[in-house]
Specification:
294 residues; alpha/beta; Rossmann fold; eight-stranded mixed sheet; two-stranded antiparallel ribbon; globular
Length: 294
């Protein structure tokens, strides 16, 4: 009886000790913004910080820029792509290394007059903003290693084309590029007449045509080919995706130029289910390529 009473008396002490013990570190996604002089506007972004970010304050991390698609914003990958859940699982298992993941905002509802797109175009110099303001700001204000060997870029749809285009034009900055259901190219179109909100889609379409990822490879000279070979490339597209042909054309152009590029066609379409599942390949892929060719 005395032992039972002592055991019951000890229970509150155990719970008290547990309550006072520090909580284990957790990863987090933060939302913040940066004012752009180039765009004359505030641009929001989401940033994933791994579990050790707050406890190991001397550690610096590789970084993945993860781009959203048309009509979406920086919230898409967190809310519908569940990037935090995937990153936590893969980092816990060791399949992916700890990294910082940043999703900038390059969009919104284009039919409500919001600008979309990752390239420079009349009224929307987003690529200039990204490289002169956004990327320097992120890598100054967070503990990023900040070199080619530890920087990667990925994206879906419009963001997949943006990631590919950025990797092509700035091959000195990225170790790896992972393109999902990517808007690699579209047919040539007539000149865009003006910049009324209802015509922003036409302006965006023209910018994608002018920055065709397929043409960039097809027209590459030996110096450009050599630069593209310093990047690890991965193209991932569903067999029911309306952009599949464009992705095939891109990989064929890469093969003709003898630029190594992994290509996967999986079961699926142009959906969040597909892009969520792609993260399970994307994060290990960029992890394996961080630190190479230093």
């Amino acid at each position: 009886m005395k032992k039972l009473i002592l055991s019951l008396l000890a229970i509150p002490l155990v719970f008290s000790a547990l309550a006072q013990s520090p909580a284990p570190p957790q990863s987090k996604i933060l939302t913040d913004s940066i004012h752009s002089k180039v765009l004359n506007a505030y641009r929001a972004y989401n940033i994933f910080l791994p579990k050790s970010y707050e406890t190991d304050t001397n550690k610096k991390y590789p970084i993945l820029y993860l781009l959203h698609g048309m009509m979406d914003t920086h919230q898409g990958w967190a809310g519908r792509g569940h990037v935090k859940d995937v990153a936590d699982q893969l980092m816990e298992s060791g399949e992916a290394c700890e990294m910082i993941i940043v999703t900038p905002n390059a969009g919104g509802n284009i039919y409500e007059g919001v600008w979309n797109g990752y390239f420079d175009m009349p009224g929307w110099n987003y690529e200039t903003f990204f490289y002169t303001e956004f990327l320097p700001y992120i890598e100054k204000n967070y503990r990023v290693i900040g070199d080619k060997a530890h920087r990667a870029i990925a994206g879906l749809s419009m963001g997949g084309g943006g990631a590919t285009g950025y990797g092509q034009k700035h091959s000195d900055m990225y170790a790896a590029v992972y393109a999902m259901s990517a808007l690699m190219a579209i047919p040539q179109m007539d000149d865009v007449p003006s910049q009324n909100p209802g015509e922003k889609m036409l302006i965006l379409t023209k910018s994608v045509t002018e920055n065709s990822c397929v043409d960039f490879v097809a027209n590459a000279d030996e110096d450009r080919i050599a630069n593209l070979r310093t990047v690890a490339w991965f193209v991932d597209c569903g067999d029911d995706d309306f952009l599949l042909d464009r992705n095939i054309e891109f990989t064929q152009a890469m093969r003709k130029k003898k630029i190594p590029c992994q290509f996967r066609i999986r079961d699926g379409g142009h959906t969040w289910e597909y892009w969520h599942s792609a993260l399970y390949t994307c994060l290990p892929f960029v992890s394996r390529n961080f630190g190479k060719n230093q």
